[in-house]
Amino acid sequence: MSSSDGSASINSLTRIRAKLPTLAAAEARVANWVMQQPEKIMKLSMAQVAQACGVSDTTVLRFCRNAGFQGYTDLKLSIARDLTSPTQVIHDDIAEGDPPALIARKVFMSNIQALYDTLEVLDEEALTRAIELIGAANRILIVGVGTSGPIVHSMYNMLMRLGLNCKAQTDAYLQLMEVALLGPGDVVIGISQSGSSKDPVYTLKQAKANGVSTICITGNAQSPITKYADVTLLSVAREARIEAIASRLAQMSIADALYVIVALNNIDTAIQNEKLIWDALLPKMY
């Protein structure tokens, strides 16, 4: 049974509680942990939940399916829907009846807070290492899927202007095809807010296997993607919704900072390339 059938209308914790007597002992341990602190599960990977419960990843996955969910992600989404108010699905801070100007202010303040929080946790050593890897790379592949796609393409647009040999790829299969052709001296940059999306995680895993240096930009320091990253750059945003808003701006700012630092390290090339680009674009301007 999956959450796509009639059981979807039942509260997630109620479903788990109803299935509890039928679960094996190890699965029941996971069930009890989830029921006691459901708010934590939205920020944790399956491996982290397994560690907290003292069981294997497979046991957590078995619990999810035996409790009536399609998998761990389905469990997280179901609990998130149950714990958040209807307006939180759109944005954490808004309430029904808020006037447009107040909603706009709340969105702006949430974004500003995400930038401040990300700046506070920015690891200077990790930032420096990322700059070194990007500056010395023979080839750079920037990957991400879903809502990370615009950040991937924006970062490519910036690094390309510096004359760096880089590509952007948001197609899951093409990511793997391209990373298969990379090796030592190359760099893969993976962007994933959750850090749990299978495609960028698997792409970085394959990159590491090929001896490629890896950098990840993520909102979860303990997520699966960090296992395969030589450098992790962390963004912070206080959002309950699954598709984050403020965190995208924080990650974009990390990409912007990387570009500006690399450009300053190669100031002559950066200035020359900007002139060439603008000379090429001017005929297309009114």
Describe the structure.
This protein has 286 residues and is an alpha/beta fold. It folds into two domains: 6-83, Winged helix-like DNA-binding domain superfamily/Winged helix DNA-binding domain (Arc Repressor Mutant, subunit A, Orthogonal Bundle); 106-284, Rossmann fold (3-Layer(aba) Sandwich), CATH 3.40.50. Helices cover 55% and strands 8% of the residues. The protein contains 13 helices and five strands. It has helices spanning 12-19, 25-36, 38-41, 46-53, 57-66, 72-83, 100-121, 124-136, 149-160, 172-179, 198-209, 246-265, 267-281; strands at 140-143, 166-169, 187-192, 213-218, 231-234. The chain has a five-stranded parallel beta sheet with strand order 2-1-3-4-5, sandwiched between helices. The longest helix has 22 residues, at 100-121. It starts with 11 loop residues before the first helix and ends in a 5-residue tail after the last helix. 35% of the residues are buried. Residues 1-9 have low confidence and may be disordered.
